Amino acid sequence: MRPRFLAGMPEAPKISCYIRTKNEERMVADVIRAAFQIVDEVVVIDCGSTDKTIALAEAAGARVVNAPWLGGGKQKRIGEDNTRNDWMLDLDADEIVTPELAQEIRDLFSHGDPPCPVYQLTLVTAPPIGEPWWQSSVVTRNRLYDKRVIRARDHAGWDQLEIPSGMKVGKLKAPALHKSFRDLHQLGDKFNRNSSSRAKDTELKSFWYVALRIVFARPFYFFHHYVMRGMWRGGWYGFAVANIAAHGRWLKDAKMMEVYMRKRQDAKQNG
Prior knowledge:
Strand content: 15-25%
Number of domains: 2
Radius of gyration: 20 Å
CATH class of the largest domain: Alpha Beta
Order of helices and strands: EHEHEHEEHEEEHHHH
Number of strands: 8
Helix content: 40-55%
């Protein structure tokens, strides 16, 4: 049954949304309510929240599945396995479906299943200060898909769909808003946390590859965010975010080197 706040609104297409959470009380209720514009089921895959995430999610109409953290792709598999529909909308707990995106998806499903098995979703960063960055830090992700045709990778360190050669991928024009941080302090914490999990779950690169990236790559990471992704359009705030993002990417390299150092130390102690 859809939540009461949707009474009087048109029935949604047979789409299930899954959201992975841990301590996401800041945004989870807003994300769920926005998703219900266009889905008839929201499933939250929670891995040990100690704040109000679960209570807020259930109050917003979602069904909560408790599961230990097994890695990005594996959590998405749990989401797929616990939804009743074939079509999936994959959202993070800080991504808001706009009314324009909801209408576009509704139109797409107005005559049954759409022609493509996968659709790209455009994510526009909405910083806590100022307007959304419509022309900078815009990314596309394959987030709307038919799980009968393609599924999330059963992988701890990689959670993006692996599109087979020749598979037709559609693109949705209307964006979702990515409210990825509440302030710069929280953004730094987020990149620090994510770099730890990615360094742990990603296949370890060669020692010298990691060493060279630690020494030389950080300016290129900054260039990628500030210039290539257009964060220069965000003024001083865009400059700050680009620096934090570059540092977060560099931290992954540094933490991979730490893995090597620990292995060498353990080998000496056990040798």
